[in-house]
Design a protein that fits this description.
Number of strands of chain B: 2
Radius of gyration of chain A: 20 Å
Number of strands of chain A: 11
Helix content of chain B: over 70%
Oligomer: heterodimer
Largest sheet of chain A: 9 strands, mixed
Order of helices and strands of chain B: HHHEEHHHHHHHHHH
Strand content of chain A: 15-25%
Shape of chain B: globular
Structural class of chain A: alpha/beta
Number of helices of chain B: 13
């Protein structure tokens, strides 16, 4: 479910697109930089939707001949749309699955993968929760239901309310594989059945802000001052690391992932120009502004 | 000659309209069956009646979803039916004309409120309030959903029930009062029973509205697919069938097992709504035939 903020952002893009179209008109279209013209349909990850919107707005400001429509819906939704051939570029906060590649190939589509940014997943609690740090093992035990009270991890005697994104979220799948199952292939740990599955990042934020029992997780770009971020360690001895651009790029923060864009086969010329621009310093600067982690490539002069 | 043609045309149009409603309903049902029944070949029946719903790992237990829908709808019914029917009685029988002329349109405006807006208020105001006042683990519970659904169902119940009460002939009330009945006795023993069919229709429509509502429920019930145990489950999170379809349908690859199971959930929704309506209709029918017997 798109949040209010995303909806407003989306409409803003459409209005901007309309404004650009009316401002340029077909006659003045030739006065642009001479790049390829056309539309790019871009859909997928809700984690990435604000980033994708910011990219689209900035790119279109420089390239009025290209129209980019951006929508969210979740990584699975974007990849499903790519498989069904209804989008040019799919955003995903997780890697495409083998069965999705097979589905795409059955439709005559060969998905092409591109890493466009990195993201840390922050574990968040209520501001007044005294918990400062958790190990991956503790987080896994909390979310799988074997720890039910904050006292068991050194907090107050309160029940733990687990918050998660819905199952169509790439963040959900990543968290399941890398945190609950600790990256182990034969580990079949599941989320506790009473985990609250909330349809949006805003839903998680709203609950964390008032509920002292709650624990949640979300992309670093969605963390606000009203939540408390927990330091995370792989082993009980530490080091306990807070998520930030430098700790993600150095590999010290354990719950970080790549963000992807997929195209159906070789990108169209306008999509290729767009994706090249995203990887260039101009595009990566926007990654930084929105609280995500730019690729190292962008840091080179 | 032309008049006869005109009449024939009008009759034809009305007939087409009437038949098309049935045809559309049957087409929808056929589509649901076509997309939903492959499930039975793909998922063993034992898995479908399992206790765990986690479709991305092939857990397709429908029990928590069905019970989640039922508990939220039951809660909404307990809230909406008494409030809705008594409000209708107040507007139709008790309130002075001036009050009534203000109240009725306002309640009908309430029916037009978008449920997303109510869901938003539910997240921002209702959930934190319930959390702190009732000392719950979280404010996102079946009860929160039931409160919102009750609010959504009340205008439907009031509007239809009030129309039914209004249609009761004046002579009934005058007769009762002339026999020395008090106002309360007139309402309880004469007017309400006479309008019973319409009031029951109102209740059924209200329950149907609550059962089928999606957005507000998805926003405030927490969507945890747990099997409710006892009355306490009303104050714990729940996941309804409608919210499940809405949250997951966008993501599934068409033709996959998960896709077919979601259509099976759709069939269940359809069948349960139909059952509620049939029960309602049969009660109304029985009530009407008896009333006709008495009057004749």
């Amino acid at each position: 479910m798109p949040s209010l903020r995303q909806t407003i952002a989306r409409w803003t893009v459409w209005i901007a697109v309309l404004a650009l179209l009316t401002a340029c008109g077909p006659a003045s279209g030739g006065g642009s930089q001479g790049g390829p013209t056309g539309t790019i349909v871009n859909k997928g990850s809700d984690t990435m939707v604000n980033l994708a919107l910011a990219w689209a707005e900035t790119f279109q400001a420089d390239h009025p001949e290209v129209v980019i429509s951006v929508t969210g819906g979740g990584s699975g939704t974007g990849i499903a749309a790519l498989i069904n051939g209804t989008v040019d570029v799919a955003n995903a906060s997780r890697q495409i699955k083998a069965e999705e590649i097979a589905d795409a190939q059955a439709n005559g589509i060969e998905p092409m993968e591109l890493v466009v940014a990195r993201d840390a997943i922050a574990v968040v609690v209520h501001r007044d929760n005294p918990i400062e740090r958790l190990t991956i093992d503790q987080i896994s035990a909390i979310y799988s239901g074997s720890i039910d009270n904050w006292a068991e991890v050194g907090g107050e005697d309160r029940p733990i309310v687990r918050l998660s994104r819905e199952t169509n979220s790439g963040t959900h799948v990543y968290f399941l594989e890398e945190v609950l199952r600790k990256g182990e292939k034969d580990n079949n740990t599941l989320f506790a059945a009473d985990t609250l599955l909330l349809p949006s990042s805003e839903g998680i934020a709203a609950e964390i802000v008032y509920n002292e029992n709650a624990i949640g997780y979300d992309g670093l770009g969605y963390v606000t001052d009203e939540m408390k971020v927990v330091a995370v360690s792989k082993s009980p001895d530490g080091p306990f690391i807070f998520p930030a651009a430098d700790t993600v790029n150095s590999g010290a923060y354990p719950i970080a992932r790549d963000l992807y864009m997929y195209t159906a086969g070789e990108p169209t010329p306008q999509a290729k120009a767009y994706l090249d621009w995203i990887l260039a310093p101009a595009g990566q600067a926007i990654v930084d502004q929105l609280g995500f982690v730019p690729l190292r490539v962008a840091e080179a002069p | 000659m032309t008049r006869r043609h005109g009449e024939r045309l009008a009759t034809l149009l009305i007939r087409v309209a009437g038949v098309s409603a049935i045809a559309i309903l049957l087409t929808i049902f056929a589509f649901l069956v076509l997309e939903g029944t492959p499930t039975l070949g793909e998922v063993p029946l034992g898995d479908l009646i399992g206790a765990r719903w986690y479709p991305i790992e092939d857990y397709y237990g429908l029990v928590p979803l069905v019970l989640g829908s039922l508990i939220v709808t039951l809660g909404a019914t307990l809230i909406a039916v008494p409030l809705g029917v008594t409000t209708a009685v107040f507007i139709a029988e008790v309130a002075p004309r001036s009050v009534r002329e203000v109240l009725k349109p306002f309640i009908e405006i309430l029916a037009g409120l978008p449920s997303v807006m109510l869901g938003f208020l539910g997240i921002v105001i209702l959930a934190p309030e319930l959390y702190s006042r009732l000392n719950l683990a979280t404010g996102l519970t079946a009860f929160t959903g039931a409160l919102l659904l009750g609010w959504i169902a009340i205008p439907t119940i009031v509007s239809v029930a009030e129309d039914a009460l209004d249609a009761v002939p004046r002579a009934y009330r005058e007769g009762a009062l002339a026999l020395g009945a008090t106002r309360w006795q007139t309402i309880w023993r004469v007017t309400l029973p006479a309008a019973r069919g319409g009031v029951l229709t109102a209740v059924m429509l209200g329950i149907g509205r609550a059962f089928g509502e999606t957005m507000a429920v998805m926003m405030v019930t927490g969507n945890a697919a747990v099997i409710p145990r006892g009355l306490g489950a009303l104050f714990a999170p729940a996941r309804t069938m409608t919210a499940t379809i809405a949250a997951e349908m966008g993501e599934v690859a068409s033709g996959s097992t998960h896709y077919h199971v979601l259509f099976l959930v759709g069939i269940l929704l359809f069948v349960i709504s139909l059952a509620v309506n049939l029960v309602g209709a049969s009660v109304v029918f029985r009530a009407r035939t008896r009333a006709e017997r008495i009057l004749s």
